[in-house]
Amino acid sequence: MASDDSVFGQRVLEDRTPGVEPEESRANVLSYTAGFLLAIVATIASFIVSQTNLLWPPGVPVGLVVLAFAQIGVHLVFFLHLGSGPDHTNNIIALAFGLLIVFLVITGSIWIIANLNANMG
Amino acid sequence: MTIAATIDAAPTELVPGRGGGGPAPTRIVVAYGFWIFLLSDFIMFSGLFAAYAVLSSNTAGGPTGRDLFNLHNVFIETMCLLVSSYTCGLGAFSAERRRPDLFFVFAALTFVLGAAFLFIEIREFAGMVGAGAGPSRSAFLSAFFTLVGMHGAHVTSGLLWLAYMAAQVAGKGLRPNVLRRLVCWSLFWHALDIIWIGVITMVYLMGAR
């Protein structure tokens, strides 16, 4: 029983699921703050890129999409605490499947409708 | 080989979470289940994003995004949501450390910032409808109100859920089951931020150019 308790206690301290912080660790306030600052920087960069000609104008949508993906990554890692630890395997696999479906729905719709528009236009 | 012998022969040095250390703790399972829900919510939003992407140029002679969007307001909305995500994280952290006093402070900040976001959004919607650019004006505006309105509805339910969680912390204290619900709520709130990144990029920043 004692060994079970120690295994359980160790698990509680070590593993991290999305949004769950281990107790007794100041590093998490730091990582929240780091993620917050990175997110602010990415947001301001998106607004600057969209409102100026800092990027080559036809490339601006690509720049915005790249910044959006970067910021989503920051949110997933620093706010939702997705990581590479053992208890994250299931979360990551589910996320990968979700991203696949999101990608298929969005790009598939844009592709098919653009095709229809071109053929009917 | 009997079942008992098979169990005895199983390797015991497996990493916890990859087959070792027994079943996963409840909070891991609960967070995983809620993560599945959030991913299904993302997939629902992907349908609305796809509809917006397809319809955004069909303005039927009506106003376009360039005429309607006020990026100044959008920037303030974005900052409200980002800061509220940060205070939400600090609130969850305070709750984990059994500091209900700090939790209530951060929960109140999160609520105020979320309500400010909603106020600006509703004002924007009311202004557009008042100017004859309501959801029935064009396919572009139908898609816009559906996508952004759905995000706003999620923020509204997140605020109601936050008020309910604050009442639970006040009434029941920071018990393990209340903490797990708080974890789900903070996952929900952070997920709304991720959706909003997609909205500002695809709808506002690209639409206002």
Strand percentage of chain A: under 5%
Which outline of chain A best applies? Answer: flat
What is the CATH-assigned architecture of chain B? Up-down Bundle
Number of domains of chain A: 2
CATH class of chain B: Mainly Alpha
The average pLDDT value of chain B, as a whole number, equals 91
Total beta strands of chain A = 0
- Proportion in helices of chain A: over 70%
What's the N-to-C terminus distance of chain B?
Answer: 70 Å
The CATH topology label of chain B is Four Helix Bundle (Hemerythrin (Met), subunit A)
Which regions of chain A contain 5 or more consecutive residues with pLDDT less than 50?
A: 1-14, 19-27
Order of helices and strands of chain A: HHHH
Largest interface: A-B, 58 and 55 residues
Largest sheet of chain A: none
CATH 4th-level superfamily of chain B: Cytochrome c oxidase, subunit III, four-helix bundle
Can you characterise this structure?
The complex is a heterodimer of chains A (121) and B (209). Chain A is mainly alpha-helical and 121 residues long. Chain A has 2 domains: 58 residues; 38 residues. In chain A, α2 runs antiparallel to α3. Chain B is an all-alpha fold and 209 residues long. Chain B has one domain: Cytochrome c oxidase, subunit III, four-helix bundle (Four Helix Bundle (Hemerythrin (Met), subunit A)), CATH 1.20.120. Chain B is built from 7 helices and no strands. In chain B, α4 runs antiparallel to α5 and α5 runs antiparallel to α6. The longest helix of chain B has 34 residues. The interface between A and B is large, with 58 and 55 residues.
Summarize this structure briefly:
The complex is a heterodimer of chains A (121) and B (209). Chain A has helices at 2-14, 27-51, 60-79, 89-120.
Which structural traits does this protein have?
heterodimer, A: 121 residues, mainly alpha, 2 domains, flat, disordered N terminus, B: mainly alpha, Four Helix Bundle (Hemerythrin (Met), subunit A), 78% helix, 0% strand
